[in-house]
Amino acid sequence: MSEVTLDQRALAARFPAPFRWSAATSSFQIEGARRGDGRGRSIWDAQVEVPDWVKDGATAEPGPDSYHRFGDDVALLRGLGVDRYRFSLSWVRIQPEGTGPAEPRGLDYYDRLVDALLDAGVTPFPTLYHWDHPQALEEAGGWLAREMADRFADYTQLVIDRLGDRVHHWYTLNEPVSMTLQGYGVGTLAPARQLVIEALPTVHHQLLAHGRAVQVLRAGGAAEIGIPNNHTLVRALRDDDGAAVATYDLLHNRIFADPILTGAYPDLEMYGLPPMPVHDGDLALISAPLDFYGINFYNPTTVTQASSPGPLPFEIVPTPGLPVTGFGPEWPIDPAALRELLIDFRDRYGAALPPIVIGENGASFPEPDEAVRVQDDDRIAYLAGHIAAVADAIEAGVDVREYTVWSLLDNFEWAEGFTQRFGLVHVDQRTSDRTPKASYDWYRALIREAHA
Questions:
Q1: CA 190, CA 173: separation in Å to the nearest integer?
Q2: Strand bridging mode 324-325 / 328-332
Q3: Count of CB atoms within 10 A of residue 376's CB?
Q4: Is residue 396 packed enough to be buried (19+ CB in 10 Å), middle (13-18) or exposed (0-12)?
Q5: Does the predicted model carry a pTM greater than 0.90?
Q6: Is residue 198 among the annotated active site residues?
Q7: 182: annotated binding-site residue?
Q8: Of residues 360, 370, 395, 402, which has the active-site annotation?
Q9: 175 is catalytic
Q10: What does it catalyze (predicted)?
Q11: Record: fold of 6-451
Q12: 130 marked among binding-site residues
């Protein structure tokens, strides 16, 4: 067991009790076992079969194989000393086609996982949806269709009916911005549509599904509910890039946060964007009070005016002068940007902002494929800097209650396959063997000191 350093002791001391520490994963990225036990077909099952679409040709099999080896994951979580584990439920394991009754074998799996976590003293903190809806629903319109909110409410009811006696803390939909912009807008995530501005109805339908899920969870006795979105601090490349910054901030941040926190969309017409397909009562449902607001943060974003005419007046460009993660210039490392973002949320939303949970934060760096102990000093530096930035924000008056590392395990990283590694624990993606990295020991020591 690693010793606590003076720096870790000083960092831990900056967090007021009872601050919580967590680690996260998602179902498609770690479970494997894509076929059998009644599991249906998700948009990612369809996407990984597209030739050459995933960088290394990976299909998420076997990966960590957590469907069969979840006990190993729970042991790692117990060893870390985390308060809570953020994992996601696979819609197609629970409701294979997105309609109809539950598949009992899928719910049995999550039953076993929840019980194992509780036995280990780790609070289960599931996410209902992490980008893997049934392919059958996608073929019926996916998030472009308003009916998806109804289907999501039905699915949520199946979940709370089975798990609600033991699970009391919930995330609804993970990062609706990513599904809209990358899944439907530019096509870098499943379902890989390239609709650009025509993807915007997916914003409203995801937020409506969130609102419907909150209703169902509240009725089922949930104690804590929130939604995590990926947010970024938007910066200008040049002094005359103000319009580009405002538009990108709208599309990445405000169009998702404003309706949840204020009950209204920003003025889309002012930006030349079409109105949202809002029906009477939608915004009241979307803005129902939450117990926390989740912020997933990885990096700031620098934009400049578009160099040629097009549907959007901005371009995303590298941030000058900053180091980068394994993703390269699009993922600059700047912990101060997290502090600025948290303070901006406090100032922008005021009393409408519930307590904040950092739902994801982490970094990928090049590492070996085979099972090996990794001395990932770059990751430790990244985590230390961003955790310190959270402490800075708390000291500036922002109410942050929890920090979550992405990710517990190296996993299937979407279009990057197994080429990007975010884990505190190295996973040999052929054998599923797990080997804790130096960052696992570092985070464990930090948590132990914070809990002392």
A1: 15
A2: antiparallel
A3: 22
A4: exposed
A5: yes
A6: no
A7: no
A8: 360
A9: yes
A10: Hydrolysis of terminal, non-reducing beta-D-glucosyl residues with release of beta-D-glucose
A11: TIM Barrel (3.20.20)
A12: yes
